[in-house]
Design goal:
- The protein is 80% helix and 0% strand.
- It has 248 residues and is an all-alpha fold.
- It has one domain.
- The chain starts with a helix and ends with a helix.
């Protein structure tokens, strides 16, 4: 466990000393803030609706979800492998699982920091006398963190599977888009709601799980388990890919 925290601290330091991470953070915060102000205007000052749009019910949120995790994780394994740093980590007294899990936690922590801007919006609104529905806001934030962890896990799988960071980012982006659009793709393929393809697409409908639970302020344990299990599965795949590098 000490190795895990060592990797986590190392990766967080690497992120916050990276110009790319600061550029992504600035761009995402600026876009999220601008969209929140726009939502407030479009909804005639409906605070809760505006915050929900910023954390799960509007397309800019999902666009950032699809783009940001791949850009954060694209260098975490592929670049270190090419530079020889990963081999040094794998020979250190740290398990492969701890190496990958530390990277995943660092990327998820960065994304959690990014989405926490909505909490500051809520505090500012409360100070101005228009307090938000805090269960809804906190539930939406939890959903954003869980989705971020899943997509960061997918990004690490792509990063572990290739030695080119840009290719890893592209593959992870495509995978995220497929995950988000899977129910729509199933409909295009003619999957009826009662057949196995339709049932599967409903079960892996990430957007429906977020909008049907977290953005309503209702924490359904089945939805939490869904994101945790799939994130752990992505962590498992990334760890197996890292282990395979020992034999190359």
């Amino acid at each position: 466990m000490s190795g895990l925290w060592t990797i986590l601290r190392r990766e967080l330091a690497g992120l916050f000393f990276s110009p790319l991470a600061w550029v992504l953070l600035f761009a995402a915060l600026a876009l999220n803030g601008a969209m929140f102000v726009l939502y407030v205007g479009l909804t005639d000052g409906a605070v809760d609706d505006s915050l929900s749009n910023a954390l799960g019910t509007a397309w800019p949120y999902w666009a950032m979800m699809a783009v940001l995790p791949p850009l954060l994780t694209m260098k975490m394994i592929s670049e270190e492998s090419r530079a020889g740093v990963l081999e040094f980590l794998l020979t250190a007294p740290v398990s492969d699982w701890a190496v990958v899990a530390g990277k995943l936690l660092a990327a998820t922590t960065f994304m959690a920091l990014l989405w926490s801007s909505a909490l500051f919006y809520g505090l500012a609104l409360a100070w101005l006398g228009a307090a938000p529905d805090w269960p809804v806001l906190l539930g939406s934030y939890l959903g954003a963190v869980l989705v971020s962890a899943l997509f960061c896990g997918i990004g690490l799988v792509a990063s572990a599977g290739t030695g080119t960071p840009l290719l890893a980012a592209f593959l992870a982006f495509v995978a995220n888009i497929v995950v988000l659009l899977l129910p729509f793709l199933a409909k295009l393929a003619g999957a009826a709601p009662d057949n196995w393809r339709g049932a599967f697409s409903r079960r892996v409908d990430v957007i429906a799980r977020v909008q049907g639970s977290f953005t309503l302020g209702v924490i359904d344990s089945s939805h939490v388990i869904f994101f945790v299990v799939w994130t752990l599965f992505a962590l498992f795949l990334a760890t197996r890919l890292v282990e395979s590098r020992r034999w190359r």
